[in-house]
Amino acid sequence: MVTVTVGADEINVSPDAAGEPGERGPYLNQNRNAPQNQADRKAPLVVNIAVANLTRQDTKLVIEGPEGHVEPLVGSGSAAFNMALPTGAYRLSSPASTDTTVLTVGRSRISSGGDVLIP
């Protein structure tokens, strides 16, 4: 989940990165001899985005990068949506704000769902 707040003087995003950053580390856990969970490492990462418009005017959140999106926002309202985002840097801006910010998206993470030891 990525949260975005749009204010008149700033746009905040938390966390400022999603997905798996950099290279994958060694697979070290109690199941090291078991095969790793498989996933398509080139598939876009589905990011859940929650937005709060802290201004009183109707506006929009503009996402620019390898994929683009415009999400309408009502004054003092909120929105939530999912996006499949390829790896890259995305600039977030709004006509209601004088600021912009960046969200960095890494590769899809491989689920650890199969790593639980069940008796």
Give Rg in angstroms.
18 Å
What is the overall silhouette? Answer: elongated
Per DSSP E runs of 2 or more residues, the count of β-strands stands at: 9
Q: Roughly how much helix do the residues carry, as a percent range?
A: under 10%
Q: What are the secondary-structure elements, in order, as H or E? A: EEEEEEEEE
Distance N to C terminus: 32 Å
Structural summary, described in words:
The radius of gyration is 18 Å and the shape is elongated. A five-stranded mixed beta sheet has the order 3-9-8-5-6, with no helix packed on it. The chain has a four-stranded mixed beta sheet with strand order 2-1-4-7, with no helix packed on it. A hairpin with a 6-residue loop joins strand 8 and strand 9. It is built from no helices and nine strands. The model has no long low-confidence stretch (mean pLDDT 84). It has 119 residues and is mainly β.
Architecture blueprint of SSEs:
Elements: E1 2-6, E2 11-14, E3 17-18, E4 45-53, E5 59-64, E6 69-73, E7 78-85, E8 88-93, E9 100-105
Parallel strand pairs: 1-4, 3-9
Antiparallel strand pairs: 1-2, 4-7, 5-6, 5-8, 8-9
